[in-house]
Amino acid sequence: MAHLTLIQAITDGLRCALRQDERVVVFGEDVGENGGVFRATDGLFKEFGRRRVIDTPLSEGGILGAAIGMAAYGLRPIPEIQFDGFLPMAFDQMLSHASRLRWRSRGRFSCPLVLRVPYGAGIHAPEHHSDSPEAYYLHTPGLKVVVPSNPYDAKGLLLAAIDDPDPVLFFEPKRIYRAIRQEVPAQPYVTPLGKAQVLAQGNDVTVVSFGSMMPLAKRAVERASALGIKADLIDVRTVWPLDVEAITRSVAKTGRCVVVQEAPRTASFGSEIVALVHEKAFDALRSPVVRVAGFDTAVPYYRMENDYLPNEARILAGIQK
Amino acid sequence: MAHLTLIQAITDGLRCALRQDERVVVFGEDVGENGGVFRATDGLFKEFGRRRVIDTPLSEGGILGAAIGMAAYGLRPIPEIQFDGFLPMAFDQMLSHASRLRWRSRGRFSCPLVLRVPYGAGIHAPEHHSDSPEAYYLHTPGLKVVVPSNPYDAKGLLLAAIDDPDPVLFFEPKRIYRAIRQEVPAQPYVTPLGKAQVLAQGNDVTVVSFGSMMPLAKRAVERASALGIKADLIDVRTVWPLDVEAITRSVAKTGRCVVVQEAPRTASFGSEIVALVHEKAFDALRSPVVRVAGFDTAVPYYRMENDYLPNEARILAGIQK
Amino acid sequence: MATKSKLHKPKTVADSFKNRFEPFKLLSPEGELLGEAPELGNEQLLTMYRWMVEARIFDERAVNLQRQGRLGTFAPLSGQEAAQVGSAFALKKSDWLFPSYREHAACAVHGQPWLSILTYWGGNEEGSRMPADVNVFPVSIPIGTQIIHAVGMSWGAKLQGKQDAAIAYFGDGGTSEGDFHEGLNFAGVYNTATVFFCQNNFYAISLPRSAQTAAQSIAQKAVAYGIEGVQVDGNDVLAVYAVTQEALERGRAGQGPTLIEAQTYRYGPHTTADDPTRYRKSEEVEEWKVRDPILRLRRFLLNKGIWTEAKDEALWEEARARIGKVVEAYEALPQRPVEDIFKYVFAEMPWHLREQLDELKRFIAEYGDPNEGHH
Amino acid sequence: MATKSKLHKPKTVADSFKNRFEPFKLLSPEGELLGEAPELGNEQLLTMYRWMVEARIFDERAVNLQRQGRLGTFAPLSGQEAAQVGSAFALKKSDWLFPSYREHAACAVHGQPWLSILTYWGGNEEGSRMPADVNVFPVSIPIGTQIIHAVGMSWGAKLQGKQDAAIAYFGDGGTSEGDFHEGLNFAGVYNTATVFFCQNNFYAISLPRSAQTAAQSIAQKAVAYGIEGVQVDGNDVLAVYAVTQEALERGRAGQGPTLIEAQTYRYGPHTTADDPTRYRKSEEVEEWKVRDPILRLRRFLLNKGIWTEAKDEALWEEARARIGKVVEAYEALPQRPVEDIFKYVFAEMPWHLREQLDELKRFIAEYGDPNEGHH
Ligand SMILES: Cc1ncc(C[n+]2csc(CCOP(=O)(O)OP(=O)(O)O)c2C)c(N)n1
Ligand SMILES: Cc1ncc(C[n+]2csc(CCOP(=O)(O)OP(=O)(O)O)c2C)c(N)n1
Ligand SMILES: [Mg+2]
Ligand SMILES: [Mg+2]
User: Fold this and answer.
1) What does DSSP assign to residue A82?
2) Which residues of A touch D221 (CB under 8 A)?
3) Contact call for D346 and B65, based on CB within 8 A
């Protein structure tokens, strides 16, 4: 057991995977000697050498495309895209190939890769370093999308993603890379994909979120509790395919729901949560599901990003609505 | 007035634009002498020559990227992406630049371009020629997304899009390129963006759709009518920004809603319609909004695409639900 | 580029690069050997010839099927047989082939059954389910995207200490896509055993090669990646074989990837949906037919005395019969169950797909299958 | 590439391309003129020098501001002044400049105020609002993407019969992206007046140039597009000016685009978030400092007798004072109203953005601005 931050837990997960499976290869821009711009791969190059932990040229399409060829060949590539804002460059390979290789080849080929992407706003970064693009990948059939919200889950979900036979987009909420420490077992363990976690229980309202919004949602739920509103707080962890039952079960009890995300509102994760809750818990719902979300604009440069991002007060207001 | 198909109306619209505005340039793969693989630019090369109607190398990122530079310089580029399935290659330029150039430069630069894309399934085409990717662009702040459903609108919406000061994705439902003819005025005219059209009126249910689904929705609405269920049928025409009022006004009356799209269901246009109707007409709704949509899979190769695509019967079943 | 400096003048591309390419040839159009033939026994030469003939017949049948509404849009290869057969013939069974949409002959040579290929173009995903022992990737429709898969595969092989090479096929048009660039650059950096096989058939649909890039040759694009590049007469099966064979050997020996530009021509339309008279003259087609790859090899075989007119006639008949059987088998294929649409999205079907499949099944039970009477 | 043929041997890249590049130089590190200087008056030479000094001071101040928490992450340019100033100095006011994130000096020379640049790095979109008469595009963070904008702009100019040229700046790393490829290929095909200015500073963050591509030079990548390419000593402002000037002239004269590889070095970290000691030795930095671009031009000016040590000291002081004023102005900038977040998404604000703005305003009215006390 070590007391680790979220990013250290990821490094630890990568190390476990590299140790236990010869087929695992980690690559991306600056992941080698430099240990990644966030240090997610710190020390791995030294331990595993240049055949396992590999710097690539500056080329996101190349990174994902090569990973597809490798995965189909039988390796377990774990490519990294350096920031959320550069993921669009690999969009075509994701959509046209990674997501549908199993489907189109009727299972003859598959694409067991984990694409790691530091993700989201809130760290005062330059432009194009603050996006939360999960909705694009939710809408794309054939992909799994995972966002951990704490160190323990980060390692367990990462190892589950690496075990998974299908392509997984692993979004790492960089804002909370170093926000908290948790006890993280040294040995490998798996936090199953597709299972939500209930972090607080209450009968009045269901709060659904994930990733860097979880700590905020948690504090908002605590404040609501102090005000007499008791909430179920659900961390979906796997954004897709979703643990819909955990949500509808809760809403059946509470009759109210708030969904919290950083990403823009329109045609997003939040939209789908509203739609699913609406479809599956129509009779239970006593008021409209509340979307607490980013606005339908680019994320402002850092001076105004706090105006954009959902915060404790906005989540609380959503709960009180 | 001429009796034109949808694709002829588009050619006609392009011709009007090329005639009336020197800044208009049409380019893309095979749009020149060949007149486009669907013949959307037929005859334009001959009339306007190689400085106005231009064949490009095979490079979608290049096509959109160059259009951005041109548009910022003051031209009115109308690039074409040959098929829906190749649009992802221009995704980064769309997201990182076209959609936010005005925003990031605080209006100093803008991006008045119209990206035309033949779109959707139902023509027995090979793989990657049948996608309906509107959701990706709906979710992206700063883009307008238009899909005409008939020849008259096709020309009017295209000319409105060309007039628009912001980037417009103009999706052309290839399945109905030649399905019907309509009287289309020879002179230029504009069908305003952001305005829905109500094609049938009834008090029992609101049916919302666009593009190639409209003829099917229309027939389903007629059959429902024969069965005594009267529907408002709304063609949104501009998929985003949406004429939400037209929809909520109708649902306030009918209390029921069906949304019909070809695209996969999750985190889609349909999800957003459900979310908006749920938020804005919560009290009026008597039953859950029904999503009649493509499934969350790739569009099957042509032998099974009819199992995938919403059809009259499935829409009717949605209306009767 | 001249500056005012007399002592120093900038060294430029013009100083460094003199386009000395001319397509490598081993056979004249009359079938005479122009150099030393690659080490191929008579049986191998005849096998290549048989593949080329079979490919031609397959192609003609497929186009006819399409014209009769019995097959979807099809991309014919006629004219490009030597480029495809010669290159694929140089592969080991354990090597990997990454095709675009026109490589029917290359795929067949490397083990994909004709029936599988026809099934693909018949709008049936079973045609992308490669047999387990056939190292052919499914067709890549988005241009250029398969290039980087081939690099990834051969890079992976190298990391695992294996000798498997990969060949990626693409056209002259494909060289303009970003994926071409990123793929060749990766291959150069990791020194992978990858062969980039460009069939330059001088058109990308309607766009002539000269308008695709200002480079005088496709082969010279190798310079940008510090890798080897070569131009070959793509209608000369011996030359294609020799050049590909050598590139594969170099790759396996750790001497890096190679870009091969094989100059050839498609006689037919881009696809059955295309009308080539809109952008090229029929005389041009006729000129190329003089350099027909099948004719050329046949003349060589006849000259060499290992082939006769009588055997040739019989061969064409046999090929027709074999492809005829393939067509029969194709037309007898049953419609696949709708489960297939949902079954392969993930290894295990998640709840939302189970719901959607159930919905479709209920719907079909009530209203009938919308594909009935349709395919 | 040897085949068994004796008569014919495939002509390959190895036959066609001999890397004869060596960086074009006009000034030795000691400031001696090695060739004929470009036609620049003394005032112009001094202006270039002033820009280089000011850029160095700006850079140092910006890094300090960042260290003190008064500026966001910043990408320092120190060491690259000659490459940027020399190239931008060759532009006409009407030409267009497409920067990446490290071209502060180039942007300043072409008219962007230092304040605007600082505002950008201070996390304020007003720093991307270029003054109306300044033909500089906003910074492009996603690598390589601006290259194709530059091509589109100069292609558009050409279509409109105008003579405006465009210059795109990017790094050695940027050459690996697909956009680089697609952009240069378009430029070759349409023969646009575009200059592709690569500052090869030998690193892309931590990745050395040698691992970025197997090509021996960046300049040779021009071969792939049939365009001109040239290598220049990027720390020699006269050589950079001469080469860029000539490339622009060629472009305007319809002689096509040029890829310029300017070899230079950044002394500092990639950005203030980077620790360069993880991937390069301090000796390497020291070696490059011997070839410092500012020192070199200063020696030349002193040799030439148009500059004195006293004037030089005064110049550095003045520059410090000027940049000091810029910093003051930067720190006095008011927070922008939250309307700005919504106002520029479209020319007109649609309903959903009006709703969201109202929501935010109501929220701020009730709970206060979450940015208060924060920026
Ligand atoms: C990314 C992408 N863009 C456009 C198309 C449409 N398209 C199909 S084939 C083709 C031309 C390809 O030309 P080339 O690469 O020379 O190959 P050829 O067809 O001549 O074999 C085009 C534009 C596509 N399939 N993929
Ligand atoms: C598309 C993209 N991928 C990754 C990054 C992250 N990143 C920023 S700068 C950089 C290295 C750039 O190197 P180079 O092109 O040589 O320019 P330099 O920084 O040396 O001036 C990287 C990887 C980015 N900004 N854009
Ligand atoms: Mg071709
Ligand atoms: Mg660099």
Assistant:
1) S
2) none
3) no
